[in-house]
Amino acid sequence: MQLTVNGQRREVTHPDEMLVWVLRDELGLTGTHYGCGIGACGSCTVLIGGQVTRACLTPASAAAGREVTTVEGLARGERLHPVQQGFLENPLQCGWCLPGHLMSAAALLERTPDPTPAQIEEAAGINLCRCGGYNSIRRAVARAAELKREGL
Ligand code: FES
Ligand code: FES
Questions:
Q1: What is the DSSP annotation of 48-105?
Q2: The 2Fe-2S ferredoxin-type domain covers which part of the protein (predicted)?
């Protein structure tokens, strides 16, 4: 089976495997993290067709014919995505949760360029941070929205 991941067609030999493992083990895209495995933590979050998706609960075959975006697909060459810049300016601690927060924030800003604090709270709240970095996460997403509106 073929998948389109970060704009590239990739051959996948285990389509029934969960997407997180196909991305990490088959395609070498280890930016997508594995945490709980039960859809609770969000560290495995990727976008399928622009929709926030838990890759630990989603077979790779479910992404057939749709665009998969992982954290490796956010930057454009040397140019960071606004969410990456936002978190760079508002760093977290261990960073295990970071890929999930980046992907959720990218999806939020795609549909809501000027999110309210409540909308940021709601979008960020679907991902856990074991280090308790929620204030940094809120600031990072708000900063990313500002940067995106400025055209970064
Ligand atoms: S590893 Fe997928 S939600 Fe935790
Ligand atoms: S920074 Fe450690 S889990 Fe979020």
A1: ETTEEEETTSSBGGGGTTSEEE-GGGSSBTTBPPHHHHHHHHS--SS-TTHHHHHHHH
A2: 1-74
**Total domains, the chain:** 2
What pLDDT digit, counting tens, does each position of 27-80 carry?
Answer: 999 999 999 999 999 999 999 999 999 999 999 999 999 999 999 999 999 999
129 lines ligand 2 (CB under 6 A): yes
Looking at the fold, whether 64 and 100 belong to one and the same domain comes out as no
Whether residues 65 and 88 fall in one domain: no
CA 52 – CA 126 distance, rounded (Å)? 10
